[in-house]
Amino acid sequence: GAGLMGADHAKIVAEELPGATLQLVCDMDEQRARSVADACGAIDIATDPKGAITRQDVDAVIIASPDFTHAPLSMACIAAGKRVLCEKPLSQASADCIAVMEAEQKAGAKFVQLGFMRRYDRSYQEMKQALDNGHLGRALMMHNFHRNVETPAADFTGAMAITNSAPHEFDVVRYVLGTEYAAISAFQPSRSDARVAPVVMVLETVDGQLVNIEINNNAAYGYDVRAELIGENGAVATNNVAYTRTESALTQSTNYDADWRT
Length: 262
Ligand SMILES: NC(=O)c1ccc[n+]([C@@H]2O[C@H](COP(=O)([O-])OP(=O)(O)OC[C@H]3O[C@@H](n4cnc5c(N)ncnc54)[C@H](O)[C@@H]3O)[C@@H](O)[C@H]2O)c1
Description:
Elements: H1 4-16, E1 24-26, H2 30-40, E2 44-46, H3 49-53, E3 60-63, H4 70-80, E4 83-86, H5 94-107, E5 112-114, H6 122-132, E6 139-147, H7 158-165, H8 167-177, E7 181-187, E8 199-205, E9 210-216, E10 224-231, E11 235-237, E12 243-245, E13 250-252, E14 259-261
This protein binds nicotinamide-adenine-dinucleotide.
């Protein structure tokens, strides 16, 4: 998939990944594959993903095609013994996710990594450290906000707020709290227009914590992702990087350490 994300991944592999060669760009749309391959200096292009995955000159794969393709293409990578960075979500159906995990376990090695980048964000890492170091006491609640200016595609649905956007939050909460979910409820306020309304989820963990996740794909004002963790002895919130756009570069204007309230 050489769309928005695929083009970005291709550029990173070509320019920033030591030891990697961008061997081929595959997209069902040949022109897209060609234009990203030319822009990033890839050696070849392809339009058939399964054929591309089994090629001898391909060691590892990035899947950046639409959500419904992720599980079958991850399966093809496992079958071919190729490591794969797959964009989230692994699937829109939990049964398909489990099938991929079972195939990986059967293959006896870790082949699939998903594009969950919050785990590599210093704010969330420091939030986890604050909990693990005992500064907050036992975790009670976590509040998560995920807002976009508008839905990424015209055919984006309320269900996709859960299957496409929320997986980032499902993942980072499991990472920070180190626990599993026991139950989930979802609610939607009504909008005055036909746009996808926010989805608010309340999750209960097996350890008795409450987590709320707000997904607002039509927040209008900006891209706004943050979280707060409340423990029995204090709270910690992410303090995201604020950037000001200059003519030539993005300048970091605040530090992005977690913000403490203990
Ligand atoms: N990690 C993140 O934060 C993040 C952000 C945005 C999107 N994503 C994920 O990345 C994926 C791609 O999103 P996008 O915004 O780049 O979409 P996009 O529509 O811009 O690009 C998708 C590309 O895949 C191609 N394609 C479709 N079916 C294909 C197939 N079977 N084989 C090969 N190519 C195929 C299309 O021609 C298109 O070029 C989605 O699954 C999305 O959930 C992740």
